[in-house]
Amino acid sequence: MNPGDAANNVLPASIDALRTQSDTTASAATVLASEEDRINAPTAAAPPARHVAQLGRDYAHGRKLFNAAKFGRHRRSSEEPLYRPLRVYLSDPVASTAVGGVTVISVPYEPLKSGPSGKFLAVVDGDEIWGKRVDLADLDCLSALLDQGHRPSTTDPAFHQQMVYAVCSEVAAVFTGALGRDLSWGSDTGILKLRPHYGEDRNAYYDPESNELRFGYFKAVPEPGPGLLPHGTVFTCLSHDIIAHEMTHAVLDGMRSRFQEPTNTDVLAFHEGFADIVAILLHFGHAGDVKDAIVRSVGKIGADPTIFSLAAQFGGATGANGPLRTALGTDAADSRVYGFSDEPHELGSVLVSAILEALSQVFERRASSIKALIAAYKRPEAPLHPTSVELLAAIAMRTSNQFLALCIRAIDYCPPIDIRFGEYLRALITADHDLVEDDRDGFRHELITAFARRKIFPDDVPDISEESLLWRGPDRVPPRMPGLSFDALQLRPDPGESPSSEEIEREAGALADVVTDPDLLASFGLSSDKRAGLPTIESIRILRRVGPDRQVRFGLVCEVLQQVRVASGDREIEMTGGSTVIMDSAGTIRFVIRKAADRANRVAAVDQFRQSALGAKQSEAYDEGRTWAALHERHR
Fold this sequence. Notes:
five-stranded mixed sheet
């Protein structure tokens, strides 16, 4: 990224922290919106929009723009339960006999057809492996309702189906809570299909063309890890970590239209690292797992590699002699720095370890008073008292939940394309500062320190102070957009619910009036060059955040992109430019995080990457729609 490429407007608004998410009624939302207008009102009224954009002449609709309107969500009646409890393996079958190896996930309730199949997830299964017809799991039958679903089993297809549905529902609920809005898929079908027994393959991956999560099964190596049968059958659909990882890929694809287009070494590494972060931090949502880690590490959770490990069964079955990846708590994981490898999983592990180190440091700060009391009364050789374990586990779980929510919310503060690790650091710092002005627990300090220790730096800042890492706005302030103010939006009773296609189209037109204004194109990373295509409105979504004072804040986050033919040496190449635009509830632009297509340094860097062996391989897989299938083939 080059100087001036990343930009945003920062208004002097009060900033709170995200602790929980809650729905609001229509009347409550109106009151909250009025308060938001008062809080976020600029000191001087911004000029009204002058340019009126015309669809097809000035802008186009992105391919995924209307996908959000097709996302299904069950509207629960007052007679229905809040949650559906379902048993799953906490990690995988290897650990299932251990204490805490099986847990219960409480997923948001919805009526289910056989599969299970709901409003936005549907299990699709066949008989390829079983040699007989496979019945689809019926989780609405009386026995399943009374017994927390089907009992955990490696040989029961119904439990396999239940496992993928439950974990995918868990991931969806975590993202929905952190973002304060419904999800959307990369496909216009509105349903993500889950294939627990896709084929005999040492692979599990998200397929964007079919909008499916595909989970393979395979025979273990002759000398597998502990607890595994030589040549035994291993099902990737029974690994909590693998399911959560692949589900995260699908959710990210729905959030950002071209976020996975490989334009530098960081792009796919970021996706792999982010998916690992989600999978690992979900471990902290289960008290038994966290308490075990507290006991093993004698209260120093950052020193316990087990809770920071992924896919132990898969790693052992493929000859890795241990978990597939361990993110923290080992010399190898803790010593890696940015650039030590360009392989996406290995490079992504640097991002993961930075996030988890920051988490462990915040945990130590929050737990210091309890640990002081423990040290005063506990003999050095004595184990931790169960009450001490409970208290420390509660702190670890709360801290992890907040880090996970921050990592997810930061996606809204990333540029729409060509992501780099240093830019994600800026997104994290800005997203947290936007909600929590007083960093009393040191979230931002520890993130900056952990990233710096791994030599992850943005390219366009004078230093790595918190102030310098916040996105900076363009000198020219774009006009306010009354058509995108909160009181102009045609919202559902729950503002976080996906709007109609008609409302999305109206909002896209209001955004285009400003971003396609010839005088403002450059401010949004767009070009007026004759070789440039039409700017495309890729997404417009609600921002809903809840601070520690319980104040609900609303806004919008939008993506606009443009294809441009630019010169690179003696030839032309195709580049993508554009920006992420974030507005407050009054329709005033607060952040414009842009990537211009015609920046000379960026053009040279992207062209060089595409011509490299790694870039050519990744670009070919992306063009064929098999990015994740190809990336995970390394385990074959």
